[in-house]
Amino acid sequence: MHEMLVYLALAAQSVASAMESTVNPLGRPLGLIVVGIIEAPVVVLLLAALIGKPRSPKITGLFLGWVFVMFGAFIGAVFFLSYLLGIFY
Amino acid sequence: MTDNVDRMLRPLMHTSREFYPFVAILGLVFVVSVYAYQQQLVYGMGVTGLNDVTIWGVYIANFIFFIGISHAGIAVSAAVRLLNAHRYKPIARIAELLTIVSLIMAGMSIVIDLGRPDRAMLLILEYANRFMYSPLVWDITAVATYLVLSTTYLYLPMRRDIKVAMERSTGWRARLFKYMLPLYEEGEEATIDRLSFWLAVTILPVMVMVHTTVAWIFSLLSSRPLWFNAFAGPYYIVAAVASGIASVMVIAAVVRKIYHWEDIIKPDLFRGLSNFTAMTTLVYLYMMMAEQLAALFAGPSGEVFVSEEWLFGSFAALFWLMTTLGLVIPFLYMLVQAFRKDYVNIEWTAAMSLMLVIAFWFKRYMIIVPTLSIGVQQVGIYSPTWTEIAILLGSFALPLLLYTVLTKVVPLMELEVEHDA
Amino acid sequence: MSNSSRRDFFKKAGAAGIFIALSNVATKMRNVSTPIIRNIVGTVYPKAVKGASFGMMIDVGACIGCRRCLHACKLENNVPDAPGNMHWIDLFEMENRSPVTEVENIPPVGAVIDYTDSPKPDHWYFTFNCFHCDNPPCTKVCPTGATYKDEDGLVLINYDICIGCRYCMAACPYNARRFNWWNPELPPSRVNPIDGSVEPLNEAVPLRVRGVNEKCTFCVHRIRNGNPVPRCVEVCPVRARHFGDFNDPNSEVSRLLKTERTLRIRENLGTSPKLYYFTRGVKWSKDGEKL
Predict the structure, then answer these.
(1) How far apart are alpha carbons B235 and B291 in whole angstroms?
(2) Distance in angstroms (rounded) separating the CA atoms of residues C127 and C142
(3) H helices of B186-231, where?
(4) Would you place residue A24 in the very low, low, confident or very high pLDDT band (cuts 50, 70, 90)?
(5) Distance from C139 to chain A by nearest Cα, in Å?
(6) Pairing of strands C241-245, C54-59
C-alpha cells in the first residue's frame, strides 16, 4: 500500500513536470486527455460487468479472460511480427 | 423451423465446389503480394514510388480506408441492440466479421508502411513515454481497444449459436465447436445479453474515437494544407460510416445470393441501409464543399495550391471521376430509390455501393498524396510502383480470404432471427 | 530505460525467440551487398554542452550557391550518394524578383534545384538544413521517442530506435528530414566533386541503415568535442554561414543577431527555428566577381 502511494505520487510528479510547457519541448501532455477519453468507456464496461445483474462468476470470468487474451494476442502479434521480420535486418 | 436453422448453419456444415477455386485465386494474389513485400523488406522502401517529399502513399490511404470500413459492423450491430432495430439482425454478424477483418488489415497497413517493421514492438515498449504526445500512439491505443472490444462483441452473443451448431453437427466439427465454447453453463443467455448491451454502449464511443484519432494523425500537423483542420474528426467519421455501410451492403448482397438467403435477408433491409448511406454521402459531399470553399476563398497559399491541384490540376481527373461516378451518382440512385415506395433493386444497390466504396478509397488517396506532393515541382511526383500495386491487391485479397474462411468457422447468422421471424 | 540496457533487452528477448533457428536463412535473405563498415553502427553522441543553444545565421547576400557546404556535409556525415542522391543541405536558385514570402513553401515556388552555374546575375541562393527548432514539431509526433531535442538545443535522432514511420517528416514544415529509402551504399573513401579532395568514411558519425530517418545534426560530433563550427560553416568560401551559441552573448551569432535585421522561415507556425537569415547586401558582382 505504502509503495503504491509513493508510486502514485511519483507518477503525479512526472505528469506535473510534463505540464510545464516551457521546460518541456514536447508541449503539454494532451495525450493524457485523449487516451483518457478513449479508455473511459472501457472502465464503464468493466464496472457494468462486475457489479450489474444478472451475473454469474463463470461468465464474468469468461468475459474478463477473453478481453485479456485478446489484448495479449494483440501485443503478442506485434512482437511476433517484429521478430519474424527481424530476419530481414 | 428446423429446416430454417439448418439453412442458416449451412455455410458451416457444407462447402460448395466453387469455394476452393475462389480461395485458391485469393491465395495466389496474396502470395504475389507477399513476394512484393519481401522485395520491399530486402531492398528497402525505395521499391515504392515514395520519396522524401511524398512520404506516404497507398499504404496510408489503405490504412484510413480499412479503418473506415471497420466502422460499419459495429454501427449496424450496436444499432440492432441499442435501438431495437431487429430487422437488421440478419446482417449484424456479417457486418461484425467485416469489422474485425478490416481492423486487422488496418493494423497490417501500418506495419507495411514502416521502414523498420522489425522494430514495431517499440510502439509498445515506448508506450508509457510517448502516449502523452504522439497522435500515432493515440491511434494505436484506440485501434487496439476497438479490436479487443469488437472481438468480444462478436464472440459473446455468438456462443448460443455455436451451442446450436454443436448440437447439430458430428465428428470433427462437433469437437471444434466444443473447443469454441469453454465454460458453458445452462441459462447464461440472460447474463450475456446484459453484457452485450453494455458492450454496445461501450463500443459506440470507442468507434467514434478510433476514427477521430485517425483524423488527428493528420489534422494536428499545422504545416500541412487541407490536413490541418478542426473538423477533420467528424469529416472522417462520416466517410467511414458511408463507406462502411456501403461495403456491408455489398457483402450482404453477395452472401444472400450465394447461400440463397433471399427470404432471410429481406429487401426491406437493403432499402433502409441504402437510405442511410444516401444521407451520409450527402453530408459528406456537403463537408467536402465546405472544405474546398475554405481552402479556395482567400485561403493561405498552401491551401489554395492543394485545392487547385484537386479541382483543376493534376489530380482533377481523379477527383471529378471520384466525385461524380463514385459519390454523386450512387447518391442520386439511392435518393431516387428512397422516394419510390417499397421498391429496392438489390443488384443495383450493391453495384452502387461498390462504386461508393471504391470512390472512398480514392478519396483517401486524394487526402494523402496531393497535400504531401504539392508546392514541389521536381521531386514530389508520386506514382505507385508494381510493388505497391501488388501489396495493395494483396491487402484486398487477404481480408476476403480471411472472411471466406471465417464463414466456415463462425455462424454467419444470429439464430434468434428465427424466433423473430 | 537507457539505450544500452534497451539493446540488452532486445538481445535477450531475441535470443529467447524461436526465430534464432532461422539465422541461417536470415543471412541469405539480408541484402548484404553493401560495403558498409559495420564497426561504427550504433547511435552514440557526445555529451550535450550544458546551457548552450546552438544555432546558425545565413547571409543570403553573400551566398554564391557553390554547393561546397552540401558536398562537404555529405562527406563529413557519411551521407550516401547512391542509391538516391541524399543530402542534408538543400540549395535553391531564386530569382531576384521572387519575394521572401515565397520561401514559405519549401522548396519555394519558382526555385531551381538543379542549376549548373552559379552565381548567376539577378539571382539569389536560398540554402537550408534542419532548423533545429526550439519547439520542434517532429519530436512531438515521434511514436518511439527516436527523435528528441537535446539539452543544448540540437534536435537529434537515435537511429537505433527509429521505426521508420516517417511521421516526423510529415510534421516537419521545412522538408528538412531525409529517409533511407534504400540500403545506403558507402565506399571506404569518396571524392568531393567540387574540389576533388578524397575523404575517407568518417568514423565519428554513426552509419544509418535502410528504413530510418536522418537529417542535419549541426555536426554534433564536432561541436560537442570542442570544434567550434560544423563542416558546412568551415568550408564556406564567402563566409555566408555563421554558427555559434545563442546563449553566449560574446559568440558571433549573438553579435550578428544584435546588429543585423534577421528573418526566420515560417515563424507563424510557432516552431522558433534556430536558423536565421539576414543580408548585408549582395557581395558579388553581376559576372560573379567578388566585390
Answers:
(1) 9
(2) 26
(3) 189-219
(4) low
(5) 7
(6) antiparallel
Residues of chain B contacting A59 with CB distance shorter than 8 Å? 183, 185, 188, 191-192, 195
Predicted pLDDT at B259: 87
* C-beta atoms surrounding C256 within 10 Å: 17
pTM: 0.89
- Residue-wise DSSP of C17-67: SGGGGGHHHHHHHS---S---GGGBS---PPPPTT--EEEEEETTT-----
Q: Identify whether the C-beta of residue B272 lies closer than 8 Å to the C-beta of residue B216.
A: no
For chain A, how big is the Rg over CA atoms in Å? Answer: 19
Q: Is the pLDDT score of B379 beyond 70?
A: no
DSSP B359-384: HHHHHHHHHHHHHHHTT-SSS-----
Subunit contact A42:B145, Cβ cutoff 8 A: yes
| Identity of the amino acid at B250 | V
Residues A30-67 have pLDDT tens digits of 899 999 999 999 999 999 888 888 888 888 999 999 99
CATH of domain B2-116+131-420: 1.20.1630.10
- By C-alpha distance, the chain C residue nearest A21 is C135
How do strand C54-59 and strand C90-95 relate by DSSP bridges?
unpaired
Instruction: Give how far Cα C189 sits from Cα of C87, C185, C197, C203, Å.
Output: 17, 11, 10, 11
Peptide bond into C108 cis (omega under 30): no
d(CA B67, CA B98): 11
Q: How many angstroms separate the CA atoms of C79 and B85, rounded?
A: 62
What is the distance in angstroms between the Cα of C3 and the nearest Cα belonging to chain A?
Answer: 19
CA dist C219 and C213 (Å) reads: 16
Query: Measured between alpha carbons, how far is B211 from B216 in angstroms, rounded to an integer?
Result: 9
Euclidean distance between CA atoms B198 and B282, whole angstroms: 31
Instruction: Compute the nearest-CA separation of B184 from chain A (Å).
Output: 8
Nearest C-alpha neighbor of C56 from the set C267, C254, C204: C254
Q: Chain A residues with CB inside 8 Å of B185's CB?
A: 56, 58-59
Contact A31 B131 (CB under 8 A): yes
Contacts of A47 (CB under 8 A, 6+ apart): none
Q: Could you report the per-residue pLDDT of B202-227, keeping only the tens digit for each?
A: 999 999 999 999 999 999 998 888 89
pLDDT tens figures, B315-373: 999 999 999 999 999 999 999 999 988 888 999 999 999 999 999 999 999 999 988 88
Is B201 a residue whose pLDDT tops 80? yes
End-to-end CA distance of chain C: 56
The answer, for A26 touching chain C at a CB cutoff of 8 Å, is yes
Antiparallel, parallel or unpaired: β C54-59 and C178-179: unpaired
The low-confidence residues of chain C, meaning pLDDT below 70, are: 1-42, 101-102, 104-105, 285-291
Measured in residues, chain B has a length of 421
Work out the minimum CA distance from C240 to partner chain A, whole angstroms.
29
Residue B170 reports pLDDT greater than 50 = yes
CB B219 within 8 A of CB B225: no
Answer for the pair C161, C144: CB distance below 8 angstroms, yes or no.
Answer: yes
**The three cell numbers locating residue C255:** 553579435
Q: Which amino acid, one-letter code, is at B42?
A: V
Which residue, C62, A57, C133, is CA-closest to B191?
A: A57
Q: What is the dihedral of CA B127, B130, B132, B137, to 10 degrees?
A: -70
Supply the ipTM of this predicted assembly.
0.90
**Residue A75 CB coordination number (10 Å):** 14
Cβ contacts (< 8 Å) between B116 and chain C: which residues? 162-164, 209, 211-212
Q: Which domains does chain C have, with CATH numbers?
A: 3-30 (no CATH), 54-278 (3.30.70.20)
